[in-house]
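Bumping with the actual sequence this time:
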Amino acid sequence: DDATDATDDATDDAADDAEVAGTWHGDRPIIFGDYNWDSILLFNRLAQFILEEGYGYETSTIPGETIPLFQAQLDGEIDLSMEIGEQQVAPYTPALDAGDVVSLGASLDDVVQGWWVPTYMIEGDEERGIEATAPGLEHVDDLPDHWEAFQDPEDPEKGRIYDGVPGWEGERVQEVKFYYYGLDEYYNRFLPGSGAALDTSLITAYERGEPWLGYTWVPTWVAGQVEITLLEEPEYSDECWDEVQEAAMEGRATEMACAWPVVTGDIVSTPEFAEEAPDVVAFLEEFYVDIDVVNESLAHMAETDVDHDEAALWFLEEYEDLWSDWVPEDVADRVRDALQ
């Protein structure tokens, strides 16, 4: 009987080991694309911690800009991209249609981009003693009438638009729309050197109650801290957006312009990895974070001056009821133990 019990115990231990090992048997780490915006970096760190502590897998990252990194995934150098917009990253849809990548579902939705202004510029802020300096500003067509509210300190005859970071897909898109709308007659484009500099320009202006007009998006940590209003543009259409993206990629003038699409951020895998790691796929197919939770998490990261790794640990402790539904209970238990 003792021998039988010992055999049963050994079998149970082996089964437990196999369960921890999972189905990914690659002789290398699982590689994530470390794109250059906060929400995807937070998602990466969340997924990495769960995969490392819950499943026992090694992970790694490759940092870079949007288009080069996505091309690296098409080349098989990256296994997973945690937040790719179908209408935001131009090569994504053709690659998806061709079977060069597969979507594991949305990590978040309601991603909105465009030109924004602090809401107090339109409505004022009685509590802060701020009067509206651009009342009636609702649409990009209104911007020529309000350029003086956004006066460029280096060129007082025009307004200033903070229009993204060189090399960003968003900056190229905003450039062709800027000229199509004829804003170059009234405004100068100012391109901050980094995403952090762009965020700082908005936060600094907001804290001082000063004017600001520029490109940003939600979710961001900024959106979790300030009240901003998106300027309307002509209604989005597939035909218009295809033309805008083609013009942006080719560096030419566009023949039409419209609002950014409201996009879903997809978790994207190479077909090979999706086939080789069904347990990781099952986890990531459940991975989803509401945009308000993303904004709150990124705002916490900024307010407490922590990096994405520490923000992920805070998220895992704060939103256990959320992430524990993404994985089997035994995996969740190991993640909880690692958080102690």
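The tokens above came from a reply further down the thread. The mean pLDDT is 91.
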